[in-house]
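Hypothesis: this fold can be encoded by more than one sequence.
Test: take the structure tokens below, design a sequence, compare later.
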């Protein structure tokens, strides 16, 4: 946790994720849609920290996980 605090302290406030959420989707017709997801507070906090660590966004991580889950489910 101390490492994360150090990284957050070093990060500039204008640091943007490597990929925009819109770039996560495969085609121009797959425009991002706002969806509300209810997560336990601890899980949401861990997910936000992981997104910072990965220089990504929570939306991009959740989209990737959903795609992976749906692909696995369709097999």
């Amino acid at each position: 946790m101390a490492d994360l605090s150090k990284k957050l302290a070093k990060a500039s406030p204008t640091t943007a994720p490597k990929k925009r959420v819109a770039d996560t989707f495969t085609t121009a017709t797959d425009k991002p849609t706002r969806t509300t997801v209810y997560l336990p507070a601890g899980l949401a906090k861990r997910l936000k920290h992981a997104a910072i660590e990965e220089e990504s966004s929570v939306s991009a991580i959740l989209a990737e996980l959903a795609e992976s889950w749906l692909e696995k489910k369709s097999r």
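Residues 67 and 73 are 10 Å apart (CA to CA). Residues 58-73 form the longest helix (16 residues).
Hypothesis status: open.
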